[in-house]
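Long-time lurker. I teach an intro course on protein structure, and each term I like to show students one example going from raw sequence to a predicted 3D structure in token notation. This year I'd like something fresh instead of my usual example. Would anyone be willing to generate the tokens for the chain below so I can use it in lecture? Attribution to the forum is fine with me.
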Amino acid sequence: VHPNSYALVVSMENMTLNWYFGNNRSILVSNCLFRMGGAAILLSNRPSDRHRSKYLLLHTVRTHKGAEDKSYACVYQQEDESRHIGVALSKDLMAIAGEALKTNITTLGPLVLPMSEKLLFFTTLVSRKALKMNKIKSYIPDFKMAFEHFCIHSGGRAVLDEIEKNLELSDWHMEPSRMTLYRFGNTSSSSLWYELAYLEAKGRMKKGDRTWQIAFGSGFKCNSAVWRALKTIDPSREKKNPWMDEIHGFPVHVPKVAQIV
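-- Reply from a regular --
Happy to contribute to a lecture. Here you go:
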């Protein structure tokens, strides 16, 4: 649409704008869940920039559930009875996020999955829908065959646990997301770039590697971006990487249950 152009993408979480000073618990919880954070990414479609680019953007898939009332209201800015403004989180948030992710995956899958996974998924779908064989479980494609790395919105432990379970990911795949949540907290969409920086700092990003970024947002939205590395990233040259000063100390053990003293 705009040849030979640059685009600056800024992702951030700004707590000062939505800090809540009231006492409504459903709104007050947002003060505890989010942290300040930000990242900026420069995109280019100029052929002359290819030699110095790190990644090639292959696919983007955007799912928006705003037409459904429950989805629209599950993360919603409102006033409480004392006219304090804050963001209320619905108890249905996790279920709505799961449905948005399922819709997003349904669109993304055919674009990235190998033919063997597509055939398994299609066969299961036909068996369940056309042949009425409801005892057959829905087949969840193995996305590890399509991607080497996963950067998942660090919206909290429950979010990461659910995606790890549903996509059958390993601790190694989840490490960038869990360590980002541990060190920086929930910085919303910018957490995806902290996670990508973690992979670079660890020296895991090799030429040809494919990365799947999954992000969530109010609306309710679920967005995916698929990248392919154009070069092997050398950690020693990543001087501005936010992890470089202490990457040697990661990963750290994060217990499933922490004792409250």
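Some talking points for your students: The helical segments are 15-18, 25-33, 69-73, 93-112, 115-129, 157-167, 171-184, 191-201. The beta strands are 6-13, 37-44, 55-64, 75-79, 85-89, 149-152, 210-217, 221-229.
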